[in-house]
């Protein structure tokens, strides 16, 4: 049983079913109804410090196009709007932190090209002329997150698995998942509840400190060829890595195949308060205009927000919980879940089925010191 039909739960279910495991996915709402449906679809290596999360991201980035090609053959199609368009990180102040970060990433195997301001403008002609440094990351990409999750779940169903929407998981007993519709017999339960994973884990008798971290995104009306890559300022990396509960914003701008421009990003720990704050939207808009001045004349069509599953040491939990027999976790990816999903599903499957892990699972274990 996989609890949660977001992209992480879907990726775990797909990998398990591909390994021959009979899988049922349950979700109290439906596919991609939570964090996944409120995301941008980022598949990034550019925003991660060298270490376990970057290694997981690199593995996932390598595997994603291979998996999509496999699913296209199996399902007849697998259009998730995959765009390996690359990313561009720019600085408008001191360039040294950006250069130092890129150097550390290159040592870890990331392709990171330091380019001049003129070269950056060739890649993004509408970018501000005030940039002092830029790094091009050709490995960065983007998908439509809802399409990715539903495609993965389609593969699960085609292999004989089930999706039970409108079913709320309430706990775990020996050899069963407890739900509001009664107990469902199973050998293993995967907690892929995203920001709600802490609540489910506590109900299962194995608490983990997952907290919701809210983010807001602006969506413009369609505009032609304004932004070609995923572009963000150098402050984004610091905001991602911060554990501060207070509001943090950094500029992220990217287009979609439909022509709309997505503008982020904000991070704030306010529990599950889903209020759309106009002052936060204004700040996102102001910062985006500083990066792309032509956005000043583009209309905003809508705004949306969601909750990311935050853990204090900024690493997901992937693997078995030895406090409760049969309980597994795949959560805590915060805003990187889309990009980490494929490798997460594969790693969890390898651990559950006794295969050799393709990445080191130790940093993601539930009993690691950072979660004590």
Automatic annotation (TrEMBL):
GO terms for molecular function: oxidoreductase activity. Its EC number is 1.-.-.-. Residues 32-52 are annotated as: Disordered. Residues 2-351 form the FAD dependent oxidoreductase domain. It holds the Pfam family DAO. Coiled coil: none annotated. Keywords: Oxidoreductase. It comes from Kutzneria chonburiensis. This is NAD(P)/FAD-dependent oxidoreductase. It is an enzyme of class 1 (oxidoreductase).
């Amino acid at each position: 049983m996989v609890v949660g039909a977001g992209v992480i739960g879907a990726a775990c279910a797909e990998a398990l079913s591909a390994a021959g495991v009979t899988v049922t996915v349950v979700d109290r709402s439906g596919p991609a109804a939570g964090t996944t449906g409120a995301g941008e679809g980022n598949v990034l290596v550019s925003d991660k410090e060298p270490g376990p999360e970057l290694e997981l991201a690199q593995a996932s980035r390598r595997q994603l196009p291979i998996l999509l090609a496999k699913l296209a053959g199996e399902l007849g199609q697998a259009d998730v709007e995959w765009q390996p368009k690359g990313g561009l990180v720019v600085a408008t102040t001191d360039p040294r932190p950006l250069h130092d970060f890129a150097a550390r990433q290159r040592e870890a195997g990331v392709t990171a090209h330091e380019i001049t301001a003129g070269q950056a403008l060739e890649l993004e002609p509408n970018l501000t002329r005030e940039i002092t440094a830029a790094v091009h990351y050709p490995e960065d990409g983007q998908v439509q997150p809802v399409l990715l999750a539903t495609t993965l779940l389609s593969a699960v169903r085609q292999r004989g698995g089930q999706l039970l929407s409108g079913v709320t998981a309430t706990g775990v007993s020996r050899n069963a998942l407890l739900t509001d519709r009664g107990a469902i017999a199973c050998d293993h339960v995967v907690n892929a509840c995203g920001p709600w994973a802490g609540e489910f884990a506590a109900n299962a008798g194995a608490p983990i400190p997952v907290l919701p971290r809210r983010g807001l995104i602006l969506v413009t009306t369609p505009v032609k060829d304004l932004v070609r890559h995923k572009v963000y300022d150098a402050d984004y990396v610091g905001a991602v890595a911060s554990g501060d509960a207070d509001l943090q914003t950094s500029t992220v701008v990217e287009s979609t195949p439909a022509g709309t421009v997505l503008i982020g990003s904000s991070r704030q720990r306010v529990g599950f308060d889903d209020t759309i704050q106009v002052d936060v939207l204004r700040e996102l808009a102001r910062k985006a205009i500083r990066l792309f001045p032509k956005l000043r004349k583009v209309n905003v069509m809508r705004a949306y927000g969601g909750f990311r599953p935050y853990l204090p040491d900024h690493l997901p939990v992937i693997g078995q919980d030895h406090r409760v027999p049969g309980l597994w976790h795949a959560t805590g990816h915060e805003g990187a879940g889309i990009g980490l999903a494929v490798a997460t599903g594969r790693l969890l499957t390898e651990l559950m089925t006794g295969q050799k892990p393709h990445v080191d699972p130790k940093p993601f274990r539930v009993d690691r010191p950072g979660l004590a």
